[in-house]
Write a structure and sequence with these properties.
Blueprint: E1 2-11, E2 14-24, E3 29-33, H1 40-47, E4 55-62, E5 65-68, H2 74-79, E6 82-85, H3 97-108, H4 119-135, H5 151-163, E7 169-173, H6 184-194, E8 199-203, H7 207-213, E9 216-221, E10 224-229, H8 231-236, H9 238-245
Parallel strand pairs: 3-8, 3-9, 6-7, 7-8
Antiparallel strand pairs: 1-2, 1-4, 4-5, 9-10
Helix pairs in contact: 3-4, 3-5, 4-5
The structure holds adenosine-5'-triphosphate (ATP).
Adenosine-5'-triphosphate binds next to strand 2 and helix 1.
Domain ABC transporter: 2-247
Biased composition (Acidic residues): 263-272
InterPro entries: AAA+_ATPase, ABC_AA/LPS_Transport, ABC_transporter-like_ATP-bd, BCA_ABC_TP_C, P-loop_NTPase
Length: 272
């Protein structure tokens, strides 16, 4: 579905992403984890065209053919069907929840340039937006200004915006950031639901979420892949425990870590 080969990004003398061969398969939910500064955001920025790679390639499979996204612009990547939900919100605060999703649906639509004048298209986008809001659990709040949403609801809205235009691949950037620990189950349900009909790459520090939803986990450390396996195998991998997990799940899989990845909310305790 989406693959990289030798993907590398240097910032001056620093290699933030180091020769990464990665593959996201159709229907798969893959998580990308690693300590602060491991290169997760940079990898996302490369996949979405926000950054140009120093070396390597990015390809998306569409209609049975591999298509290069290596030098594609962010809008070309989005047009190709790879959408990202942002850790730093891209919500218009004064607009309503519905408007935020409708505008995203319109921008993603094939007839975007006609949208403002074409009533049928406008109605279609409103319908799509309501469907998406229903899916992310926000339809009851459709007429609220986005600024009035709680943290967790904003994350839900960001996922909704990323869903607009029906992408093939969803890149979810810390959908749990700033969300209270009571809402973790809602976020798990939301991620699991969108993964039923999209290939999903998730960056998330909360290991309870990652271990719960992932089909596969890729671990980055200092820009390089140090593990790529099923959750149980990754959890038991000594190199991953050393670099990131710091004791998480070593005894019975349910313990909170004494250090390492966060398990409940917005506090990040992972060492760089
Ligand atoms: N624009 C930039 N210029 C220079 N260095 C950068 C730039 N962006 C990131 N870096 C460096 O690249 C490395 C990887 O950073 P990145 O933000 O990708 O890590 P991360 O895994 O997303 O971390 P976090 O979990 O804290 O979000 C870090 O050492 C960071 O300081």
């Amino acid at each position: 579905m989406l693959r990289t080969a030798g993907l590398t990004k240097n910032f001056g003398g620093l290699t933030a992403v180091d020769d990464v061969d990665f593959r996201l398969r159709e229907g798969e939910l893959c998580s990308l984890i690693g300590p602060n500064g491991a290169g997760k955001t940079t990898f996302f920025d490369l996949l979405t065209g926000a950054l140009e790679p120093t070396a390597g390639s990015i390809e998306l499979r569409r209609d049975g053919e591999w298509e290069s996204l290596t030098d594609a612009s962010p809008s070309a990547v989005a047009q190709a069907g790879v959408h990202r939900s942002y850790q730093i919100t891209n919500v218009f605060p004064e607009r309503t929840v519905l408007e935020n999703v409708r505008v995203a649906a319109q921008a993603a639509g094939e007839n975007a340039w006609k949208g403002w004048r074409n009533t049928a298209t406008f109605e279609e986008h409103i319908e799509e937006a309501h469907g998406i809001l229903d899916r992310v659990g926000l339809d009851a709040l459709a007429d609220r200004p986005a600024s009035a949403l709680a943290h967790g609801e904003k994350r839900q809205l960001e996922v909704g915006i990323a869903l607009a235009g029906d992408p093939d691949v969803l890149l979810l950037d810390e959908p749990n950031a700033g969300v209270s620990s009571e809402s973790v189950d809602d976020i798990i349900d939301l991620i699991a639901d969108v993964a039923t009909d999209h290939a999903v790459l998730l960056v998330e520090h909360n290991m309870d979420i990652v271990m719960n939803v992932s089909d596969r986990i890729v671990v980055l450390n200092q820009g390089a892949v140090i593990a790529d396996d099923e959750p149980a195998a990754v959890r038991e991998d000594p190199a991953v425990q050393r670099a990131y997990l710091g004791g998480y799940g070593e005894d019975d899989g349910d313990d909170l870590p004494s250090s390492g990845a966060t398990t409940d909310d917005d506090e990040e305790v992972v060492g760089a």
